[in-house]
Amino acid sequence: MLKRLAKIAIISMISGSIMFAANFNAQAEKDRHAFVNYFLKKFKNPVKNQAKYFPYVSIKEIKKDYIYPLSFQAFQDGSLSWYKPSKEQFAEINAFPPYEIPLDDGEALYKKPFANGKTYSSCFPNPAIKQNYPYYDTKKDEIITIGIAVNECRVKNGEKPLKYGKGDIAKVISYLAYKSRGQKINIKIPNANAAKAYEAGKKLFYKQRGYLAISCNECHVKGAGKRLRAEALSPALGATTQMPVYRIKWGGLGTLQRRLAGCVKDTGSEKPKMQSKPLKELAYFLTYMSNGMKLFGPDTRK
Amino acid sequence: MKKLLLISTITVAFLAGCAMTNPYASNSADSAIANAQAKYNKAHSEMVAWKNTKKILNQAKKLAKTDPKKATALANKAAYQAQTALTQSAEFEKTWRSAMPQ
Amino acid sequence: MIDAKKLLAVALMGVISASTVYATSNDALVKEGRKVFVTKKLGNCLACHAVQGDPSIPQTGDIGPKLVNLNTYPKEYLFDKIWDPNKTNKNTLMPPMGRSHKITKHQIDALVAYLQEITKAK
Fold it and tell me: What helix, strand, coil percent values describe chain C, rounded to 5?
């Protein structure tokens, strides 16, 4: 009798831990559903829901300038997804996309042999992989962004790592992104430490900071669909699908890490280092929120 | 003996008075800078430091010898920023989850 | 008798000149407040707020409410709101420009003077 009881206890313990193991993303999925639903509802009918979501925007302006309803995939376009004036302006600019030349450079870099004769394709035989980044490496116990993967490939082949954020690394990533167009973002949370990293990124996103005491959430969730002076604010849903981006302001390509570092600074905070732990966690969280969305990088922004 | 004591007391008092009132006394900015540095280090390690705090603190360090009065003011400004960053972080820690989409 | 009249006149003149001094200094304050309101490095309030009664302000954002009838609010309320809006609203989007010492107490007084003057129903 006692033996049997012990057996049951052990079995239930094991099955419990299996269930637990399968559920490292349970909280993240709950968060993601609420997140996606918020955006779909908010942009379903802004005229009807003006009082709830856009209390300080006039109905007249909504009718004139807003694009709606927005489908899940439509959020790939950032502020251009909902703001007609920007969308029209960028449709013109993208008739000859400014990212085309650096993208060609990226392809050339991808195919150019290293000193040892091998190329990037020795590490990324199939370049359509961006949908899986950033991922949590359970062996190294850290987040691997696509930039880190590119540099690891170089080091493995006896080359110097590239500087993060812009220049050659952004070009190579833009080629990988281009080859990954249409792939659906597929971020996983494989273990408890990955779940912790997700939670840390989530906090960085939602908690107010800096001398402005403001959060990403306030500008890109609550603020999405509003204007900060003349800047139409992009929804955080889909905010990583278009990376790397060619920014008119930068006059060149920049990676997600570069954009995130800049946006943390814009809250009035010390600028974090690219590929630092907090910034990787933020990228991990933010990309997870767009799971299931098709990639469309590189793209152009203001 | 008594006289000596009196004189030395007066001298000490005089010197102390000098140190307190003379803005150019050595080290007058150092304690303000040390205080600011400690607060900044804490805010930085918690990743909540503000954009310019380090810059202000470095300016204070540069001026510590040549213009201690200004250096002290700058150090105090840096300390204020770092402390406010820490205080607001502790406050927002209690409330940020309520701002998530439900 | 004549003396008393003279005295009164002098006194009146004193009051008048005092009030013109007051008016001009308030004008200066209002002007300064407007500058703080629209300057990016100072208040940058226009990034989020339109203002009733000041159509000369260039494009404004729409994250915060249009500021209207603020002359009906107590001065202290407005000062406190600008100093640190988090005190009354934990999840406000409005930055605490006073508490973070990005603008001075005097500049907030100027903002309050400007907002109360400009949003008066005319």
Answer: 55, 0, 40
